[in-house]
Amino acid sequence: MIQSNALVHRPASFLLILVAFAITAWGPAKLRAADAARPNILYFYVDDMGWGSIGPNGQARRKAAGEIYVKTPSIDKLAREGINFTRGYGCHVCSPARSSQQTGFHQGHTFADRNDPNNAKKAIRAEDITMGDALSAAGYVTGYWGKWGYGGSKAMASPVIENVQTLPTSHGYQHVLAELHHVRAHTFFQPTLWHAPAKTDSAGGLALVANSMAAYRDGDVYPQTPAGQSHVDYPQTAYCDDSYALATLDFVRRQGMNYNESGQPFFGLFAAQIPHAPFDEIAQLPQWDHAYADDPRFGSLANTSQRWAAMVSRIDAHIGNILAALDDPNNDGDTSDSIASNTLVVFQSDNGGPGGSYVGELDANGGLRGTKGKIYEGGIRVPLVVRWPDKITPDSTLSAGSNSDRVLDVTDLLPTFCELAGTDSPLGIDGVSIAPTLLGKGQQRGREFIIHEANDGQSIIRGDRKLIIGRRSTVELYDLTNDPSESNNIAADNEALVDELKQLLEGERVFEPRGFANTYHRWTGDDGEDASDVDNWSDYRYSNAGVTYLSDDGPPQMSWVAQIDHSGSGPQKVRANSDLEFLALQIQGDSKTQSRQTLALGAGVNLMGRNEIRLGAHSVLSVNGGTVSSLRWIDVAPDAVLQGHGSIDATIYNRGDMLVTGEISIGKDFYQSPAGTLSIRFDGVDARPLEIAGVASLGGDLSLLAAKSLALKPGQQRTLLTANRIEGKFANSGGVIEINGEKYMLHYTRDSVVICQE
């Protein structure tokens, strides 16, 4: 078998090939220099800020009640102009939160599923496609400032690069000022930070630079609040979040002007360390508590609460300065060059807040049970605000200034950004794009559940129910709508639901040992070979500096993200003689020669793609009496074909061709776009209709194939398909369909489509 990753680092050419395949094989990105429809994306990501720390999640209520409150005017303004997602989720601690954020995989599938002493060396792998990878390949200018946490050593004096393949510069980020080890981020006064682009050749394209405010002291160019960088008492080594914030401000100004000139959008991610401990360090800064100078009650708070609140208000003020740059990129006081209207802004914390005096004195976790590191809501539910003035308005689907109880997980942001950027999501990820909801158009795909791991157990949230399996196999079930504080365990009264959710949770691999993750594989066999044969697939090995962290050289299994792609002339067929399971599978023909790549399932053979099955252009999936299933969907791209008979236990999104050659049932929903075609072979008077258990959303064309005349008489009709609910109609001209020269009328009921004599 062929090794897919035996490299210490990822060459640039490998990155370009990997990301280009992920994008061009499934809905090519339109890499235009000017594309005003694509938004800029600015993502603020803070560290350890509890759900209740911002105005709309509780601090505004405290203010109205005359209590001392945390001041976050910039974030609160974002919420008034955008949407506050009251059920936003991160992870339980820092490292898995960043890994899930960047890769779109939840903790059961991403490599860094918990804080691990060696995560800095190994967290994000060469094959993982991150936000930076996807958006830079889609033509965005990209930047990252703040706590990255992976790839560098923890030495404070002379840190070194320890794993090139896990660096931000190895994953599409072009402009960087970052901390590469989470232990070095346990102070705000690191003497050096990692910077790109580097002025000289260096490992990973990063160079160490002094953590200093020297370049930002000009008060005519840079705001002096909140940093106070020109104050005589400001330390020589900067408070790192001041450095990150002003570097972000520079980027937004430059790229805002570039956007106005060229139309090239940008993606910037500011990952602040605030308000992570240590708290006392902020008191080394001049006027550190100026945000609360007019509140005499501030001094009555515990020292930790004072410092924590000052940190939160400090980062809020930095966010306000950066948002002001969207309104006035060239900083001349004239906002006619504003780019704010077409900039998507996201604010989020990585996990819930840790325990401390501020939880009680300032209600930082909003009354939720638990704190950082715990599986309860206080550990994983986070503040999450989204603003996009062009699309989020008082009249939009999600209206500006509103709260939404829609569940939005950190893994959903990568696919959302990808869709808005005009490119498709990386294969197999757990996140689901909410772009159709933000845009108010298109088909919003559902996400049935989200999962989390923590030190004290694992959880699955589906709708308003949350199941927790504790470390000692304890079982807890909560109704989050009526019991958000998780105080009433209803597991004993809902045994069937507990069993169902536990089975789903186990299938998401959250009970695997540390170091388990999805693996990446490609077809290496010849035409006509068997997909069940281990020798026809690439091996997987993740290693660095002579240490192998993860390997898989076995046959296909549920952790595989696999691709069968054809390059060359002439059709190629892969057979499946026994059942196959994948986390995700993509089949892709050759786009240059338009040669077909077919996966032909043997009689009664079943295929499972737990997260998804993608049929790319010039591909064919042939079903022969077995079951093709996915917990989510099968995507059929233009010029792809899903054909055969049997059972399909998945939602189908058809933009290509679906050919029904015999009795077939669809266990979930069926959506056909205007580009799609549904063809049904309809032989014999006893032929059963296509049965769809869920919604059938119809568009595009319908074609009927029959070996002989149907010879329907006036008043007779035949049912073509049934569904729980029919939406829309096929685009056949005049509602007429022709079979062997005979014309019939299409008629639609609430739950069926029939033909009758014209």
UniProtKB/TrEMBL annotation:
<dbReference type="InterPro" id="IPR050738">
    <property type="entry name" value="Sulfatase"/>
</dbReference>
<protein>
    <submittedName>
        <fullName>Arylsulfatase</fullName>
        <ecNumber>3.1.6.1</ecNumber>
    </submittedName>
</protein>
<dbReference type="Pfam" id="PF00884">
    <property type="entry name" value="Sulfatase"/>
</dbReference>
<dbReference type="GO" id="GO:0004065">
    <property type="term" value="F:arylsulfatase activity"/>
</dbReference>
<comment type="similarity">
    <text>Belongs to the sulfatase family.</text>
</comment>
<feature type="domain" description="Sulfatase N-terminal">
    <location>
        <begin position="39"/>
        <end position="422"/>
    </location>
</feature>
<dbReference type="InterPro" id="IPR017850">
    <property type="entry name" value="Alkaline_phosphatase_core_sf"/>
</dbReference>
<keyword id="KW-0378">Hydrolase</keyword>
<dbReference type="InterPro" id="IPR000917">
    <property type="entry name" value="Sulfatase_N"/>
</dbReference>
